[in-house]
Specification:
single chain; 222 residues; mainly alpha; 0% strand; Protein CWC15 homolog; mRNA splicing; RNA binding; Cwf_Cwc_15
Amino acid sequence: MTTAARPTWAPAKGGNEQGGTRIFGPSQKYSSRDIASHTTLKPRKEGQDTQEELQKRNLRDELEERERRHFSSREDKDRRKGGHLLLEGSKREIEDRMIPRSADADDEVEIKSDDESDDDDDDEDDTEALLAELEQIKKERAEDKLRKERQEQEEQLKVKEAELIRGNPLLNNATSFSVKRRWDDDVVFKNQTRGETKTPKRFINDTIRSDFHRKFLQKYMK
């Protein structure tokens, strides 16, 4: 953004004293932003805990009063909670004593005989026997599983030992320690350029007499 249109404190004036030789005196004008602000502290007003109000108050009595209210409210809550629990307990006892609403007064109450109680005992004995048998079956299955895992681990160890023995030539009863022949030992055309002399590469600082240019002419221009 250009600053050509902004006014200055000492605008340029045409005259004989041009060229930066004029001497300006100190300006008597100043900006409103240079004026000192907030020269006084903000005092407390009434109701904002001034020093006079704090001197008149008894802070210890206020603290004790708040503590008393707190503890009294807690005691009331505990008392109400205990009464509620007592009411619930008595209500449950009454409901247990009462006859269910679905039962009519004319219905006869069923009384279990001794035979039925004996049948119940027999059923309980049968269930206990079944549970014991089930526990025995679970135990046997767990033992079988552990035995199978142990056998698998032993077999894996044996396989690893056999592989290690076969990998060691000293323990493998090797007949000869000679190095195996390469696959290209019997090839007819092998190392044909062994006796040929390679022409060393040279650098010629001339594009016309360089080896690349000579080969190019020999290949395409001849």
